[in-house]
Amino acid sequence: MTRLILIRHGQTEWNAAGRYQGQIDLPLNALGRQQAEQIVQQLDGTQLAAIYASDLARARETAEVLARATGLQVQLDRRLREIEQGEWEGMPFTEIQRRYPRELEQRRENPLGFVTPGGESIRQVRQRVLEAAEEICRRHPNDTVAIVSHGVALAILRAHYQHLPIERMWDLVPANGEVTEVEA
What we know:
Blueprint: E1 3-8, H1 13-17, H2 30-42, E2 50-53, H3 57-70, E3 74-76, H4 93-99, H5 101-109, H6 122-139, E4 144-149, H7 151-161, E5 179-183
Parallel strand pairs: 1-4, 2-3, 2-4
Antiparallel strand pairs: 1-5
Helix pairs in contact: 2-3, 6-7
């Protein structure tokens, strides 16, 4: 059984402003860098076999702080990226509510299959994220592995490995810098 340490990247300016980031490639802000250092302290004494991360800057930077502390290399995997938000990327939720009320209603009615204009669905994200996680587990049976990723991607992993309905994933989105452990 593989022990997965699921880590959400530290904060960015868009997180602080409440903007949908999706796959826009933004760096950590000052608080995000502090959160990355706090993750290292929180995991002090944990024997990691590997560190995997999304290739987006905010996850990669968070993982690199952990890598420096452990002496491990960060293995980047684009399948661990956040959900592609399409036209919604960069917008605060209030603007999405104003400009896309019909689409928000469609998302409420079909949360797993809805695709934002120019984006991807939860089902699509689930497929790629679980594929990456299963591959990681095959490479590291009986090891402890860190996965540094994003809110939606990590919520999907939490739902899957905690045997919860995928429809509950929105309740499982971790805060920036949050660390959760699951067994796969």
